[in-house]
Amino acid sequence: MRTIVQIAERFHSKNEAWDLKAYVLGALFYRHISEDLTRFLNSHEHAAGNRGFDYSKVSDTDAERGRSATVDEKGFYLLPNQLFSAVRENAEGDENLNETIDSVFAAVTASAKGTESQHAFVGLFGNFNPNSEALGDTVAKRNRRLSKLLNDIGNFPLEDGAADFDELLRYYVTNAGKKGGDHFTPPTISQLVARLAVAANPGARSIYDPAFGSGSLLIAGLRRLANGSARVFGQELGLTNYHMARMNLLLHDIGHDTFNLAGGTSTLTAPAHEDDQPFDIIVSNPKWSTAWEGDENPLLINDERFAPAGVLAPKRYHDLAFTMHAVSWLSSNGVAVLVQFPGTLYRGKAEARIRRYLINSNLVDAVIQLPPDWGYGVTVPGCIVVLRRAKSDNAVLFIDASREFKRVGSKNEMQDSHQDAVVAAFLAREEVNHFSRVVSVQEIEAQGFDLSVSRYVQAWNDREVVDIRLVNERIAELVSHQEALRDEIDTIVADLERIEA
User: Fold this and answer.
1) Given this model, what pLDDT does residue 226 score?
2) 165: part of which helix (H) or strand (E)?
3) In whole angstroms, what is the distance from residue 147 CA to residue 183 CA?
4) What does 112-126 look like in DSSP terms, one character per residue?
5) Residue 477: is it exposed, middle or buried by C-beta count within 10 angstroms (0-12/13-18/19+)?
6) More confident site: 237 or 479
7) How far is CA 213 from CA 151, 180, 209, 286, 462, in A?
8) Helix (H) or strand (E) holding 106
9) Same structural domain, 149 and 265
């Protein structure tokens, strides 16, 4: 059976993959929403007794009558001749296919403009430019390439669009190195983050990610919550990721009325959800150790998010700026679960002062050491920091999960059993040799507010224990045996010499 990745590889070379990913992802999403809209309208008509109704066969004039009610429900609208199936059917002979696709995607935006779903659909296909020279140096070449893509996507057995979208994301980041890892958290780590967050706050009504990338942490968190009315919020600097994440949420059946994402601006300097905070759950895996304005912007030190620490995160590393932002926007019973670069646990100067503030304010609930080589584009172990406002004690739980993985392909995966061990330790909050330990604030202060797990949890030593006394006895036996053999050899040689004489 053909996989969605094979279709991607037919469309572009590996060298082109990262730059042309938006076309494959966009075409898959276009087919999904076309078929989803058709199923929705057909089911309504069939339920009303019109068993032979097929929206794809309706005239555009007749279809216009259902626009308003459908947009209220689905958030967007496409006329029958704008559906994926119609455009694909005529693609090969359409000399203006680039303009046709452009007009269809513009129609999606136009249908949502001025409505409550505008935030979800406007600009959604912003990265899918059918006139880009990256597709070919002439319109004819570009159209031929797009026509083949539509045909391949159309022939693909689309049973689970969300799973196929996830598979494409993994393919692109696996082949993109560091620039791919910037926006994609591996599924097993997303699951662990979600499990920890929901275990700490199962009744949460809101989830927020200040640097959501592809949206995987938001999706995993929402899926874990039993609260069906929980809402999702987030912000992302990169517009490419912003568009991709909205597609990802919609493909996972997260309705436009459930999420509110912002894109194109930095959470640290232009936060988009001040009117929506505080949040019950905050999850995030911001791009590690990246430069930001820091003290070059004199307004930031007085920002109520950063001011309590009395110092800003250094300009070279924005990591703890995200931590301070998360703490500031937590609800009274909220929990933040952040995937971070391990340097945030031990680097000195400004970062040490921020850690001191967090510890003295009793905001750090747990620090979890992850295995090495778990992410895309990174091989360092990484860590998870859990922050809470309503803690049950004045201590920090340290968990060494560096051995909790299975090697799968070229990466280490924290599978269900490994996650189970971490979550169980997180909930039990007890000492387990070589795995977990609850450490007092006083001990952490004595260590200079270093939060490295290895300082507090003794590493497992799986080397064989050697009894040196027994080793020495064995050596003595071997030496004695060796001397006896030498005596025997000397005797044999002497006998041979006598015979020869």
Assistant:
1) 84
2) helix 161-174
3) 29
4) HTTSTTHHHHTTTTT
5) exposed
6) 237
7) 29, 10, 9, 8, 38
8) helix 97-112
9) no
Closest Cα to residue 197, out of 355, 331, 6?
A: 331
Residues 300 and 433 grouped into a single domain: yes
The boundaries of the domain holding residue 42 are 4-176
Give the chain's radius of gyration (CA, Å): 30
357 and 249 co-located in one domain: yes
Are residues 481 and 440 located together in one domain of the fold?
no
Place of tokens 């968190």: 221
Three-point CA angle 87, 109, 135, nearest 5°: 50
Q: Residue 373 in contact with residue 403, Cβ under 8 Å?
A: no
Out of 149-163, 177-191, 278-292, 314-328, pick the least confident. Answer: 177-191
Residue 226 in tokens: 């039993």
Residue 376, domain member (yes or no): yes
Q: What was the pLDDT predicted at 480? A: 72
Tell me the per-residue pLDDT of 400-454, one tens digit each, with 9 for 90 and over.
Answer: 999 999 998 888 999 999 999 999 999 999 999 999 999 999 999 999 999 999 9
Q: Is 265 strand, coil or helix?
A: coil
CB 243 within 8 A of CB 129: no
Q: How many domains does the chain have?
A: 3
Residue 14 and residue 74 in one domain: yes
Q: Within this chain, do residues 153 and 213 fall inside the same structural domain, yes or no? A: no
Tell me which amino acid residue 95 is: E
Q: pLDDT per residue over 216-275, tens digit each?
A: 999 999 999 988 899 999 999 999 999 999 999 999 999 999 999 999 999 999 999 999
pLDDT at 485 over 60: yes
Predicted local confidence at residue 470, as pLDDT: 62
Instruction: List, as own/partner pairs, every contact residues 466-469 make where C-beta atoms lie below 8 angstroms and the sequence separation is at least 24, other chains included.
Output: none
Question: What is the structure's pLDDT at 188?
Answer: 93
Cα gap 330→358, rounded to integer Å = 14
* 139 domain-assigned: yes
Mark whether 167 and 190 lie in a shared domain. no
